[in-house]
Write a structure and sequence with these properties.
The protein has 261 residues and is of the alpha+beta class. The chain has helices at 28-38, 67-89, 107-117, 133-136, 150-168; strands at residues 171-178, 191-196, 202-204, 206-207, 215-216, 221-228, 238-239, 251-255. It has a 4-stranded antiparallel β-sheet with strand order 4-6-1-8, with no helix packed on it. Helix 2 (67-89) runs antiparallel to helix 3. The protein is flat. The model is unreliable at 1-16, 120-125, 179-204, 228-244 and 255-261 (pLDDT under 50). Belongs to the heme oxygenase family.
């Protein structure tokens, strides 16, 4: 997954007030809704902000449902839900387990619907009725049945997403910087280190052996600890300044809570 951190814009040691984006105060889900609307056109969503640039982004003037198309939709949906549900069933990361048994699982119900569509005793033409809202009232698919109030199930998942996202803002990780003595001068300059997160906020590091210091030296390997956005958000570091002769570190390695960059 490509990563990109915002460039550091200042060399001051005091942190700037955090820039808040639309919806952020209400939580991660609301913040992402604002971001999503920037990627949608008005034809796709009433709050969409993107200009129509491609034919596929225009509103469909007339939609003619078909049995083949509807069955393809069910099959594709089954694949999506199978994948999502298998990920949370055996979570690679601890926070995935938060999304087990939310009540939004659809894989088993879709399996029943698709099994019914293959039943020879079921007239093929009756499937055509499933693609019309008028006829769907006469035969409700398992896919559209929920064990509980759907709006509440959705809200429960939103709350879980907000909880996980909030916890991710403070996950600890370390940065190891290996430096060399290949510069023309061998002075052990102390060089400040900081990075910008995806919002452009500056986050400063602390040395593990000296929490009051946020600098590193030449000819050494130093380890820092950062509490801030998770490691996968900041795989690229930006130095506030280099040495007096333009020297920069030989390598920078980030060790995250769950995975390395």
């Amino acid at each position: 997954m490509p990563m990109k951190a915002a460039a550091v814009v200042s060399a001051t040691t005091a942190e700037k007030p955090k820039k808040r984006y639309p919806g952020e105060a209400k939580g991660f889900v609301e913040e992402m809704r604002f971001v999503a609307m920037k990627l949608h056109t008005r034809e796709q969503a009433k709050e969409g902000e993107k200009e129509v640039e491609k034919p596929e982004e225009q509103a469909v003037p007339k939609w003619e449902p078909s049995v083949e198309g509807y069955l393809r939709f069910l099959v594709d949906s089954k694949l999506v839900y199978d994948t999502l549900e298998s990920i949370v069933e055996k979570p690679a990361y601890p926070f995935y387990a938060e999304f087990k048994n939310t009540g939004l699982e659809r894989s088993e119900k879709l399996a029943k619907d698709l099994s019914g569509s293959k039943n020879k005793a079921m007239p093929f033409q009756s499937l055509l009725l499933l693609v019309s809202e008028k006829i769907l009232n006469k035969k409700e698919l398992e896919f559209y049945k929920w064990d509980g109030d759907l709006s509440q199930l959705l809200q429960n998942v939103r709350d879980k997403l907000n909880k996980v996202a909030e916890a991710a803002k403070s996950c600890p990780y370390t940065v190891t910087i290996k430096t060399s003595c290949s510069s023309s001068s061998y002075t052990r300059d102390k060089i400040s280190l900081a990075f910008g997160d995806s919002y452009g906020n500056e986050v400063y590091v602390k040395r593990l052996d000296d929490p009051s210091s946020g600098t590193f030296e030449r000819c050494s390997t130093d380890t820092f600890q950062i509490n801030g956005p998770c490691a996968y958000d900041i795989c690229y570091l930006y130095l506030l300044r280099s040495g007096s002769d333009g020297w920069k570190p030989e390598s920078v390695k980030i060790y995250g809570l769950y995975e390395d960059c």
